[in-house]
Design brief:
Elements lengths: L7 H9 L6 E6 L6 E8 L4 E7 L4 H16 L17 E3 L2 E7 L4 E2 L4 H16 L14 H14 L4 H16 L6 E4 L8 E3 L4 E4 L6 E4 H12 L1 E2 L2 E2 L1 H12 L6 H29 L9 H5 L9
Helix pairs in contact: 3-7, 4-5, 5-8, 6-8
């Protein structure tokens, strides 16, 4: 993982390119596998997040900032990127995009009833938004990643039990999941570390790197993959809370309900594939090497839908 060290002077230069107060202090912010994050405190007590996008191209960052701004402007609770004095949403330093966001005070969202009900409502509102015409249709942790893993396995003679299983399962699921399911904007990765909240409700959604135009019910069950399990078992009450909040805004149709189990299986495999790529191939020999197995162990568990 690349990481950019930022000095007080470096951060001051970024803040000075806005109309905001002078910088008082800087501290590292934990989290993130593809970015360097810092909390900046200004002299008027405003707090900002300075984010350096270590693994994204300038074009990719520009796209993501545009999409995030669209969501914020349309009522989705997420931090809207701060505009620099030159009208841009990012500053380029050493070939990397540097951005500023408002700091949202809170904690990772808990998996209690009120929190998940709140999250379900917000996710349904996201799904009801008209997608911007620039929105991509490719879910990066889905078929594209699967094919990338299969290609690497062919080139390196590196077919493993997991990759063989992934190929078989993904082929079967592509045939069983209906092609006419409702589609729209999905977040694609609503896990606890991508949602800031209080003890009772959502305050802000984070990290829209997986945002795309895809199956809405897939996004809902992906959220259950992130929030709905404990000690390797699905928690029915959590699904019921998430679903109740969601359906208070948008009702699932019969085809979506009938596809939930298959969509959940695909979502689980997508997270497993991403972890396999990140921690077995891209960043091997860390304490996270076997993290994908947490997902594969879920495939034989009875689900609450």
């Amino acid at each position: 993982m690349a990481y950019t060290e930022v000095s007080l002077d470096d951060a001051s230069a970024v803040v000075e390119a806005t109309d905001m107060s002078e910088l008082l202090s800087i501290e590292k912010l934990a989290g993130g596998w593809a970015n360097s994050n810092y909390i900046l405190t200004l002299k008027d007590d405003t707090k900002l997040v300075l984010k350096i996008w270590n693994e994204q191209s300038l074009e990719e960052v520009e796209y993501l900032l545009s999409m995030t701004s669209y969501l914020a402007d349309n009522g989705i609770p997420t931090a809207k990127p701060i505009i620099f004095n030159n009208g841009k949403l990012m500053m380029v330093k050493d070939g990397l995009a540097w951005t500023l966001l408002p700091f949202v005070e809170g904690q990772w969202l808990e998996s209690n009833h009120s929190s998940l009900y709140s999250l379900g409502m917000i996710q349904a509102n996201l799904h009801l938004l008209n997608p911007p015409k620039e929105l991509r249709s490719n879910f990066s942790m889905g078929d594209t990643l699967f094919e990338k893993l299969f290609s690497i396995a062919d080139e390196t003679h590196g077919w493993t039990d997991f990759l063989n299983m992934l190929k078989t399962e993904s082929t079967l699921l592509s045939k069983s999941i209906g092609q006419d399911l409702p589609r729209g904007i999905i977040h694609g990765d609503l896990f606890p570390d991508n949602v800031i909240g209080t003890k009772e409700k959502v305050k802000s959604l984070l990290d829209f790197e997986e945002m795309c135009h895809d199956v809405l019910a897939f996004d809902l069950v992906m959220t259950f993959v992130g929030f709905g399990w404990e000690n390797g078992q699905p928690v029915a009450e959590r699904w019921n809370s998430l679903l109740a909040g969601y359906q208070s805004v948008r009702k699932l149709n019969e085809a979506e309900i009938n596809s939930l189990a298959d969509l959940h299986r695909l979502a689980t495999l997508s997270i497993a594939a991403w972890r396999y790529w990140q921690f077995v191939i891209n960043l091997p020999n860390t304490e996270h090497t076997d993290r994908y197995l947490e997902m594969t162990a879920r495939l034989d568990k009875k689900l609450p839908f």
